[in-house]
Amino acid sequence: MTLLEVSGLTVHIGGKRVLDGVGLSLAAGDSLGLIGESGSGKSLTALAVLGLLPEDARVEGSVRLDGAELLGLGDRALSRIRGERVAMVFQEPLTALNPLMRVGKQIAEPLRLHRGLSRRQARAEAVRLAAEVGLPDPEHAVRAFPHQLSGGQRQRVGIAMALACRPALLIADEPTTALDVTVQAEILRLIRGLAEEQGSALLFITHDLAVLAQVARRVVVLGGGRVLEEGSLREILHAPAHPYTRTLLDVARAESVEVTG
């Protein structure tokens, strides 16, 4: 059953067309990778799904979640969907997290907002989630402020927040870019494992095919705001049809040689 259906998504910002007829679909429990270079439109596609585009954006097309149209919904209706039905893990958790709020309270916030948990219940669940995402000494970790945690630990907090309400769709936007290779691999395993465990569909955004190969079953390639190619992970990796995709593969192989060389 199709969970997310994006069709003809076209976005103009400041008079410039930044997305041009983007289409993709994602079934419940499936994993889809959205790949392209910086400026290709990956993050804008995710922001359009969440209804977080700039106020001056002009949007055409359709974004349906479980058959219900999201484009055109007001902020109040969208706020009920964000965090509960759709959640996002951002690229840089230090900017996504509130620096003045303890991380336990930030994990608990969607639980109180969407699930109606009491303060005590939400805190207990925040500790459980902190343990589930691998934060050391969860009881202590939830009392920390974001700047007191490492980059990998902050990203784990972001994952805990995103998965707190067991969303039907998890969007991960370049969630490992700022992390070293070892922590990156841990975070990728964590996102993939928890999404599968909760039955959440995963839309994973990256510029790196090597990263995508660890989390996605299907791939959509974006370039210049357009879908250039789509297919199974195997098809994209072993028989890319578009020159742009072949270039991405060449870059990934060259970077792999540099790391291992």
TrEMBL record:
Where in this chain does the record put each ABC transporter domain?
Answer: 4-249
SUPFAM superfamilies in UniProt: P-loop containing nucleoside triphosphate hydrolases
- Fetch the InterPro entries from UniProt: AAA+_ATPase, ABC_Ni/Peptide_Import, ABC_transporter-like_ATP-bd, ABC_transporter-like_CS, P-loop_NTPase
Q: Which Pfam families is this protein grouped with?
A: ABC_tran
UniProt superkingdom: Bacteria
UniProt main location, coarse: membrane
The way it spans or sits in the membrane comes to:
Peripheral membrane protein
Keywords assigned by UniProt, alphabetized = ATP-binding, Cell membrane, Membrane, Nucleotide-binding, Transport
Location of this chain's protein in the cell: Cell membrane
Q: Which family does it belong to?
A: Belongs to the ABC transporter superfamily.
Query: What is the protein name stated in its UniProt record?
Result: ABC transporter domain-containing protein
